[in-house]
Structures are given as C-alpha cells and as structure tokens.
Amino acid sequence: MYRGTITLEGNIGQAPAITFLEGNERSRGEKRPILKLNVKYDRLVNGPNNEGLIDKGGVWIAVDYWKKDGPALAQLLQKGMRILVIGEPRAEPWENDQGVMEPGFCITAESISILPRRIASITLEEKAPYQPHAAQVPYQDDSSYEPRY
C-alpha cells in the first residue's frame, strides 16, 4: 500500500491547541499528545501591471501532529507564524454555517518546520553533556583484523 505525502507552506491561523488521548496498548499505556492547528495556504499570484502579489483564494487546512514532541512544539508555535508541514492528507468533511456537510481534508503531519519569516530571535538551550551508556565498551583499534572470504 502506498501513502500519499503533501507539503504545505502557510501561516498558522490561531494559537495551536494540545490535547491528550488516553493511553492504549500501542502507546504502552502512555497518554498520547495531539497538536492541532489550522494553516492558511495562500495562493499568491502576481498582480496586474506589477502591482505585487495578490491572494487568489487560498484555503484553510486543519493539521494534526501526533508525535511525542507535540507539547514542546505547541509552546514554540504562534498565530501568524510561517511553517512548513509535511504529512499525509486525509478526507475530513466539515459542517458549514447552514448545517450542511462540506467535503474537506486535513493533514496528519509527519513533520512541522518553522520558517524564518518574521522571527526576531532564536535562543537555544545548553546542550546536555554526553553521558555514555553504562554497558558501552570503549573503542579498541583492532588493526590486525583480516576478513575471511
């Protein structure tokens, strides 16, 4: 079976929301975080007479992100931030203001990247010192090794 992948660049429309689902057998009983956000994919085209770019009717797309770093990502993402989403599209009908179901789709994100537009500064945490695994054996040079054929 093949999976389709979609790449989407757009702006976050509202503050991302993080929720947790109860654990199950697959998650070994751990609660699973789901990061939900809406992204506006703009359809920008050159205006007439070189008037700059104009929006020719982009679309809002719901994005779900199911990975463990979702809560940390939710603290970084903000409304208006430009992001790149790579994931799998899936059908998801929605109800309009008149109560009629409309066709739609959303993306289950595999990755979400922050794009540098409008970013004023970035601060990284100190890298934790390396601590070798207790059972790890130091490297020993064995230059006398001869492969058998």
Query: What CATH architecture label applies?
Result: Beta Barrel
Q: Give the % helix.
A: under 10%
Nearest-angstrom radius of gyration?
23 Å
Q: What is the assigned CATH homologous superfamily? A: Nucleic acid-binding proteins
* Fold-level CATH name: OB fold (Dihydrolipoamide Acetyltransferase, E2P)
Class from secondary-structure proportions: mainly beta
User: Which CATH C-level class is it?
Assistant: Mainly Beta
> Distance between the terminal alpha carbons, to the nearest Å?
39 Å
Whole-number average pLDDT? 86
Notes on the structure:
This protein is mainly beta and 149 residues long. It has a single domain, classed as OB fold (Dihydrolipoamide Acetyltransferase, E2P) (Beta Barrel), CATH 2.40.50.140. The protein has one helix and ten strands, in the order ββββββαββββ. Strands 1-3-6-10-7 form a five-stranded mixed beta barrel. It has a two-stranded antiparallel ribbon with strand order 4-5. It has a two-stranded antiparallel ribbon with strand order 8-9. β8 and β9 (101-102) form a beta hairpin. It is extended and about 70 Å long. The mean pLDDT is 86.
Q: Would you spell out the secondary-structure blueprint of this structure?
A:
Elements: E1 6-12, E2 17-21, E3 32-41, E4 44-46, E5 53-55, E6 59-65, H1 70-76, E7 82-91, E8 94-95, E9 101-102, E10 105-114
Parallel strand pairs: 6-10
Antiparallel strand pairs: 1-3, 1-7, 2-3, 3-6, 4-5, 7-10, 8-9
